[in-house]
Design goal:
239 residues; mainly alpha; two-stranded antiparallel sheet; 64% helix
Amino acid sequence: MIKAFILYYLSIKPTHGYEIQKFIQANHMDSWTKIQSGSIYYAINKLEKEGLIELLKKENIGAKERKIYKMTSKGQLELQQCLKEELNKEIYDIGSDKFIIYPILNGIEKKEIVAQVQRHIKLLKAKKERTREWQKIKVKEQTLKVEAVCFEMMLSSLDYQIKWHETLLEEIDSCMLLSKQISDFIKEVDFSTVEDMDKVMKCSNQQLDIEGFKQEILDTSNPQKAAEKLEELIKMLKK
């Protein structure tokens, strides 16, 4: 997912690895997914070698030099392919990278998302049926309880995966709207300049209702209010 995330970020605007790293840290993505901020620079070097991104310019910040990268046309195609592949991956645990895909879905067309998710649901349901049949064969009265529980865990996991993907389809319009707002947010805010995002969010004089903000975004009947909330948050972070 780190590859898809970097390509997505650079599809919004040219930037440097430090900003992407700061965005990940500010959103605590490295604590609840397998995306690690420390792997950003390694991934960027690999993407550059593959011709998916290219160096736009170099900037000197004090004694440090920052490399600004931009997306290539090859990278744009690769991003779409990466997102399709991520949509077809299974969710394995609480640190699954797939948990962050719904906010970046506007990297591909809605009809493509729906097709990929429907296909994956079909595969998951088929896998569930195979697992259930194997359970009938393997789990008998004399079977160890630990083995029986393994099958219960697998079936439960598949049930939740199916439910997650079906819910994604139900809320696809809201997810894509949220994705668009997040893109606008990234475009307007240089996260490398935000020293302490938690402190900003908790500032008593400027505190925003973040959950309310999300609900405003998801309220498709009032896009103007969502835009106003987004602008308010951007202004706060730029101070």
